[in-house]
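Lecture notes, unit on protein representations.

Consider one protein chain, 220 amino acids long.
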Amino acid sequence: MSDQEYDKERDQALAAAYEKTRKSLIARLDNWEDQKTWDEFYQTYWRLIYAVAIKAGLRPDEAHDCVQETVLSIAKQSKKKLYDPEQGSFKTWLMNMTRWRINDQFRKRKKDTAMAGGEWEDDRKTAVIDRFEDPKGDLLARLWDVEWKKNVADAALARVKAQVSPKQYQIFDCYVVRQWDAKKVQDHLNVSMAQVYLAKHRVGAVLKKELARLEEEVDE
């Protein structure tokens, strides 16, 4: 399988997972007052929560539940104004909200296994819970930092993709994101060298604005 085929397959799987989780989430939020705002929030952060949940040891179905429960908790808390910027960053607050939902999924798994008469055989999973419940949270914090940076970049690129032409984005993706040689981009996409450099400049400028916007949203 080529890189492009792999990327396309991965994107299709993520898109399907996104729609499935989003529809289920909306159905559970009967009074989602500002759906557009929450939908944008979901689009921005669901992959971050999902990726950390998977790396923490949850199965895909458990990770999807973790995403839903985290966003639901945030939706409920937002009405009570429980997030206080004076008490810490949004990044840390969201990490803690995610941590609690990850722990919930591990506890649910353990309970379901016990009810089924099985044994909690995987000691590694128990150790993961113990480490996540450590007040220092070093393991989860490290995972979160890595995925946070990746998610911010991906979220910004997704916003950029909706603002520029498909051709310009494709050139930018190959030349800047994938770091292909300019000549390879020119030959592969049948474009001029001027188009390659123009796309880098124009799309790069939009990307810079979106990254700044995301940082402002986090700091608010």
